[in-house]
Amino acid sequence: MSPTELSADLVHTIESDRTSLSKDSFKRAFLDNLFYTQGKFLQVATHMDYYLALAYTVRDRLLYRWVSTATAYTDHASRTVSYLSAEFLMGPSLGNNLINLGILEEVRQAIAELGLDLNDLLDQEAEPGLGNGGLGRLAACFIDSLATLELPALGYGIRYEHGIFYQTLRDGWQVENTDNWLRYGNPWEIRRPEWSVEVKLGGYTETYTDAEDRHRVRWVPAKTVVGVPFDSPILGYRVNTANTLRLWSAEATQSFDFEIFNRGDYMGAVNKKVTSENLSKILYPNDETPQGKELRLEQQYFFVACSLQDMFRILQGQGVSIERFHEKFAVQLNDTHPAIGVAELMRILVDDYVLPWNDAWSITTRTFGYTNHTLLPEALERWPLELFRRVLPRHLEIIFEINDRFLHDVRIAFLGDDAKVRALSLIDESGERYVRMAHLASVGSHAINGVATLHSELLKKDVLADFHALWPHKFYSVTNGVTPRRWLALANPRLSELLHDTIGDGWIRDLDRLRELEAYADDPAFGARWREIKRANKVQLAELIAKRTGIEVNPDSLFDVQVKRIHEYKRQHLAVLQVIAMYHRLKSNPSAEILPRTFLFSGKAAPGYFMAKLMIRLITAVGDVINYDPEVRGRLKVVFMPNFSVTTGQRIYPGADLSEQISLAGKEASGTGNMKFAMNGALTIGTMDGANIEICEEVGAENFFTFGMTAEEVDARRRAGYDPRAVVESNPELYAVVELIRNGLFSRGDTELFRPIVDHLLTHDTYMLAADYASYSACQYEVDEAYRDVARWTRMSVLNVARSGRFSSDRSIDEYAGKIWKISPVSVPLL
Ligand code: CRA
């Protein structure tokens, strides 16, 4: 019997117990797992036991598909995408896996028959918060879509022991608490020690002559750590494809140093282990503000080196020659965090496999694609040269060599233009010397893309303009997307049911099918159901708000929501100015007819970002005044919901009426929350920034509230000399608002607390709140007017959903696959 026959045979023997999707066998398997993996019986089991038993039951069903997928890929020797990302913000897996298996309702039923509520079990799952925000969540949506489109793919990242911090509020300030997502274990992962690899760090290099008389370089590292892969299956929607998310955990080469131990130094003996394991201990909680921390560079190199070694193992397992690496793997760099991969692949090919430089370079550049996610100058990663040399001495030499050859080409392309040479160099030599990671990624990739049309245009015009002049053919644009499985089917069961009843289920796999809803936009019966659903979602959100914050909100008020990382460029404080203006209006005229609104904010601030933390404090302070002012009588509420996460997002988007996407134009590369809101029937008030522009185009300008300067107007305004104080002083409403903050209304008379915000607004106003204020304020009046017209608002909401198909991550992935990766689907037969 050959090994393949053997495994097929085995799978069939165990099939009925572990793979059947029938309700009865599911129930049996659940009880079996409760008994044999949790060691509990129904009467004494906790909700966590139930959740884990259910998770293992679902996992068994995934494993069958996973093994089948691995077999199909091996048989086809398929071209594979390796998606390299320092962050994967997955969110809980159970609900999503039930959706993708197509058994959510059956399982709900089975669980109910055992006297349990599926929702209670879903709530037990700890969220793997292995990302900061949009970039990490994008990676998670992308691997869902890759599997759904039956594309061979591996996600490679880091298994951080502690993900993004858990945010609480104390006296209105953000407090960071350590996340401990692994406390009860992670039922979705399988540790694969047999595929562990070693990673070298530090030390020095030396040259030598090998047995064949070749001059070679040897890297003598200062330390070695072990990378252990933990694999999780990523099942596509109603397909057999289950791809792999492979996250690396750092371990010590030896858990215990006996030499030190024998000298009697007990603590010292475990020290080495502790330092090695620090590598994958914690996710750096900064979004778009990298800090030049040595450990962070080590983390980046660690997971990239592990992943490339893993790819070579797979290549060799399939008997493919090294020279064909780029034919087997398309490696995508999710921002510059994995850009060191360019130098690492060169090192492997040149130092270990002794390939000629030019051959190695050709393989490398045909392997990598680079996605840029930001234009913010402070977000572009660069490493001080000395730090880089200390951690990766051999890679620095390789980068110098790449740079030499590259700059030679630059000199020829831009004859005699030394400024171009300095601007394009991989090394920034304007002061202290740095390695520019975006330059390394751009030189080492065959494709460079932005994440929305405007962003890609600005990349070509601005941040990477010189690279564009050199290699226009390398530039692409792929607008971001989000997975409709998690963000619609799972997050919004009520709306999904209505869609199911109206147009069937085709939209879950082909989101453009939502267009069929357009026919119902003016149908009164449909509209009434539409409103009932939104209202029910709002009631549920109001309950969550009350539970998390103690604040009671009125489900009949307009839910005006801004949820995302807290950043000055995202301008949460612009929304706050508007809230204060409304409050001021009410106070000046208590009987004024105003449309009741609930302002909901949620999001984390980087722990070291003073202004962002102060912005949170301003939101909570304004809430503390307005929410308890009897004169306002529930017409205005301001809520800051702590700990925004994937899980909280799933509960917020479906209950929103209005989505705030108010970044200064030219600053938000794309945004993805904007898409989640639109898909769930919220209307957007937004600037012409990032993907807002494309959302507005798709849904129609009449169904979108636009305001503010365009990116071009922003530039022109700044060039013309921008004086924010003059703008504030010439707008009585804005002036009054600023005065209220300045005089301490929201700080019990303390005029110092919010001074940094006020001063910055009046002097620099980097993100031009003052310039956009009047237009924002006027636009909010239009929102009021539209909301009062119930039929009109309903129609707008329906059309937003109907026309959101383009913002499925399936569309994004289809574009990457066709234009950049050149990969095609492989259909997977079950074994
Ligand atoms: N912070 C951008 O700012 C974008 C996501 C995903 C960001 C968002 O506008 O939607 O990436 N950039 O493309 C980023 O992380 C390092 O840069 C983000 O999430």
TrEMBL record:
Q: Which Pfam families match?
A: Phosphorylase
Question: Among the record's GO biological process terms, what is one?
Answer: glycogen catabolic process
Sorted alphabetically, which keywords does the UniProt record give? Carbohydrate metabolism, Glycogen metabolism, Glycosyltransferase, Pyridoxal phosphate, Transferase
Q: Which CDD domains match?
A: GT35_Glycogen_Phosphorylase (cd04300)
Q: Which Gene3D superfamilies match?
A: Glycogen Phosphorylase B
What's its EC? Answer: 2.4.1.1
The cofactor required is: pyridoxal 5'-phosphate
User: Can the keyword Glycosyltransferase be found in this entry's annotation?
Assistant: yes
Alphabetical list of PANTHER family matching this protein: GLYCOGEN PHOSPHORYLASE (PTHR11468), GLYCOGEN PHOSPHORYLASE, LIVER FORM (PTHR11468:SF3)
> What name has this protein been given in UniProt?
Alpha-1,4 glucan phosphorylase
